[in-house]
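RECORD TYPE: inverse folding
INPUT: structure tokens
STRUCTURE:
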């Protein structure tokens, strides 16, 4: 079993997991920042929804980084490393609540695409534990996207 993990560390799986970690971290930061800065008539419900989402994402960050380590690689840990790996832009605290929701929806869409790509790479490598982790993350972000999208509907 240890041999399989050593082999996986030499595949693109860790690079894809690092991209998932970076996108997840940037989306976590944006969600937490919007939790702090949301304003308007939906304040209470959005403040609560954002807290639920960023709390779940925070726990997942550790799981993703630990999987990278279990595969024998170092997990990225700096802002510059995340900036180089992530496709998710920083948030803007001056945004309206609706603009915050739209940006978070876009962030989840981006992360879902990153997760699907990583899932394919992990599946092709026969890395079932990573596939399981990524499938769980995919389901979480699809649910978060649904919740945000439902909030944006008239």
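DESIGNED SEQUENCE:
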């Amino acid at each position: 079993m240890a041999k399989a993990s050593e082999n996986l560390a030499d595949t693109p799986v860790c690079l894809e997991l690092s991209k998932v970690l970076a996108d997840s971290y940037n989306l976590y930061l944006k969600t937490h920042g919007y939790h702090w800065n949301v304003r308007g008539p939906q304040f209470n419900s959005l403040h609560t929804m954002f807290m639920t989402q960023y709390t779940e994402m925070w726990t997942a960050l550790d799981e993703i980084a630990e999987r990278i380590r279990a595969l024998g690689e170092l997990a990225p840990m700096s802002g510059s490393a995340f900036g180089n790996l992530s496709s998710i832009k920083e948030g803007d605290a001056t945004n309206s609540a609706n603009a915050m929701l739209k940006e978070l929806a876009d962030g989840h869409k981006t992360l879902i695409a990153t997760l699907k790509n990583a899932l394919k790479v992990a599946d092709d490598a026969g890395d079932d534990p990573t596939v399981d982790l990524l499938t769980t993350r995919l389901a979480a972000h699809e649910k978060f996207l649904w919740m945000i999208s439902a909030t944006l509907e008239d």
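NOTES: The first helix runs from residue 2 to 9.
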